[in-house]
Structure prediction request, 510 residues.
Amino acid sequence: MTEVAQAPGAERAQELKRITHWIGGEPVAGTSGRSGPVYNPAKGVQTGEVDFASVQEVDRAVEAAREAFAAWRAVSLSRKTEIFFRIRKLVDEHREDIAKILTAEHGKVLTDALGEVARGLEVIEFCCGIPELLKGGFTEQASTGIDVYSIRQPLGVAAGITPFNFPAMVPMWMWAPALACGNTFVLKPSEKDPSASVFTAELLKEAGVPDGVFNVVHGDKVAVDAILEHPDIAAVSFVGSTPIARYVYEKGTSHDKRVQALGGAKNHMIVLPDADIAMAADAAVSAGYGSAGERCMAVSMLVAVGHAADELVDAIKVRLPNVKVGDGMSPDSEMGPLVTGEHRDKVASYIDRGRDEGATVVTDGRETAPDGNGFFLGVTLLDDVKPEMDVYKDEIFGPVLGVTRVDTYDEAVRLVNENPYGNGVAIFTRDGGVARQFQFDVNVGMVGINVPIPVPVAYYSFGGWKSSLFGDLHIYGPEGIQFYTRGKVVTSRWPDPATSKVDLGFPQTR
Ligand code: NAD
Prediction:
């Protein structure tokens, strides 16, 4: 019997929704006796209880995926394409349903949730071209009568472990290319907003994905460790915070798995004195506070060069009172609550910490948070932030935007390059030469030029550098296809008996 935990400090809805695993094409109630609370962050109310998997339950999901692999792998590419077109259609038809699930459990506003689904859908659309993406090479007559060709084959069972901040899109970055390449999949979504994954499982079944090809297990470290240690899992994709990404990479690779582990971020936006300041201020507010700052590509530090600083801070300051904070379900809201009360309190604590460290609190989000029990925090702007302060060093992951002032372009680039993270960065300038030099100089995986959130389109790949990614391959796009397949090279001869002879020498190609 599942033990239902009492959520500290939060009210509970009259009837809690129970969120179960999905194994072998059907919902499976957890039997571990462990579970966790799911909230509606806008109301500050517990609305659900999610089952946490035991090692045996993870084993069961992996077994279902292992059993389904041989048949799924053998499904022709034209049939897989047909299924992917159906998945595409169903996700498109259910955009709003998925978005509402995201808003209800994560808190982001509905328009933002719709944007999340749209960006995930682009990855599914990319995967509809899987026959083209899996094409190998062919060399005729490499040696006399010998042809050589390369093919890419699936790995087997792949697993995905995903964060709370994109409960639909990040799983799509993983399962779509994994399945298209012929793998089967076990997803362990964030326990904070798990319902979108179960809804996805239902849609995949409806689209004709065979039972066992896509499975969901919910849970915490117990489930994650069971995945990382499981001998039948060939590859693990992870997206989440840097300490856990490092742990997943080290543990997964030590258990002979291929691992890509995307971590946290501290994304800088450099504003040069020649930039269009109004455009830069719009971008800073949108990228700093969108989704309440809970995006791995959110701008969290503005690096203002020379006289850009005063103009930029003034321009942002006048925009902040217009940011409408409220329930994500309301069409008027532009920014929703944070995901949990605990996270809201942690983010809010950085405002005092910043002041104590010597930063100037231009706007204090605690003063503008809507009333009620929701996990709200208004927008905060900290000026005069210095690189040695915690508010600079830590990934705050909330609606707290910092400004640091420097004198030169070189100083700005040095700050970015010395930062341990390297996920996204942006530069705002009107000078094409400087922008081009910046893309050459900067040690970051995703670069925006007058674009504050440079999330690559689906036919490029997404990933940071340094502590923002452990592993060699970025996620989705061409590198996603590479990650979920391995190469094989075939050297072939159709023998002419007349030329057959014993030759103990090393094979030569002439
Ligand atoms: P998190 O690291 O706390 O959790 C991610 C996943 O790991 C979840 O499924 C969680 O259940 C699991 N997990 C948590 N603690 C664990 C432990 N001790 N052992 C094993 N597994 C554990 O991250 P989060 O708070 O859900 O998400 C926010 C973080 O994700 C931020 O740091 C953000 O920058 C990062 N993120 C990065 C990207 C990217 O592309 N680089 C994208 C989205 C989010």
